[in-house]
Amino acid sequence: MELVVARIGRAHGIKGEVTVEVRTDEPELRLSPGAVLRTEPASAGPLTIETGRVHSGRLMLRFAGVKDRTAAEALRNILLIADVDPDELPEEEDEYYDHQLMDLDVVLEDGTEIGRITEISHLPSQDLFIVERPDGTEVMIPFVEEIVAEIDLEEQRCVITPPPGLIDDRAEIASARDAEAADAEARSSEAASSEGASSEGDAR
After folding, report:
1. Which superfamily is assigned to 100-188 in CATH?
2. Average pLDDT over the chain, rounded to whole?
3. 58-109 tens-digit pLDDT
4. Residues 5-16: pLDDT tens digits?
5. CA-CA distance, 130 to 141, in Å (whole number)?
6. CA–CA separation, 23 vs 124, rounded Å?
7. Would you list the domain boundaries of the chain?
8. Cβ contacts of 122 within 8 Å, gap of 6 or more
9. CA 36 to CA 41: how far, in whole Å?
């Protein structure tokens, strides 16, 4: 099985080094010196990692044959891909590989559908699920214990308990606006009825 483990960023310095956006929980395994990775597009690879280091919270890599900044810049935005046994599981019980989480249905505890995981972003501070909503919009869900209540691989779903404001609540806002408009219309009708009654009384 193919696993996207990183995306190459901008060149760093003049000796062929590049920054990478890590997309794996195991960079020490997937992105270590000597690792041979396929690429997307395939014409850019395969690439062999020559050196790796962390600088200012970012992983820097140098690939064999990439000797200067011009060659490094040519690799920008290329995806790095590792071949992973689909039956391979992380050592820790509460850890998951990206391919296990991709396409999981995201729901609230009451079963309300939120969307589907289409991408996982590995940031220095935390991991984020990029979730595509039924209307095509996207929402970012932090992969933290306080929000992700359950990962059920058998049922292919992710249960979340988001804090207020995390999920796009345009439907709730629209509903509230509709209710407010209906209330205003009702008050207007009552006012009109009262005026009509007063006029009728005056006529009598």
Report:
1. PRC-barrel domain (2.30.30.240)
2. 81
3. 899 999 999 999 999 999 999 999 887 656 656 566 678 777 888 999 999 9
4. 889 999 999 999
5. 7
6. 11
7. 2-83, 100-188
8. 21, 22, 23, 24, 25
9. 15
pTM of the model: 0.52
Q: Which two tokens stand for residue 102?
A: 């991709």
Residue 176, exposed/middle/buried by CB under 10 A (0-12, 13-18, 19+)? exposed
- 167: closest CA among 96, 109, 101? 109
The token pair at 142 is: 């932090």
Full strand arrangement of the beta sheet holding 127-132: 138-142, 127-132, 113-122, 105-108, 157-160, 148-152
Give yes or no for a contact between 97 and 90, defined as CB atoms under 8 angstroms apart: yes
DSSP code per residue over the chain: -EEEEEEEEEEETTTTEEEEEE--S-HHHHSSTT-EEEEESGGG--EEEEEEEEETTEEEEEETT--SHHHHHTTTTPEEEEE--TT---SSTT---HHHHTTPEEEETT--EEEEEEEEEE-SS-EEEEEE-TTS-EEEEE--TTTEEEEETTTTEEEE-PPTTSS--HHHHHHHHHHHHHHHHHHHHHHHHHHHHHHHHHH-
Contact 63, 75 (CB under 8 A): yes
pLDDT of residue 85: 67
**Check: CATH 3.30.980.10 for 2-83?**
no
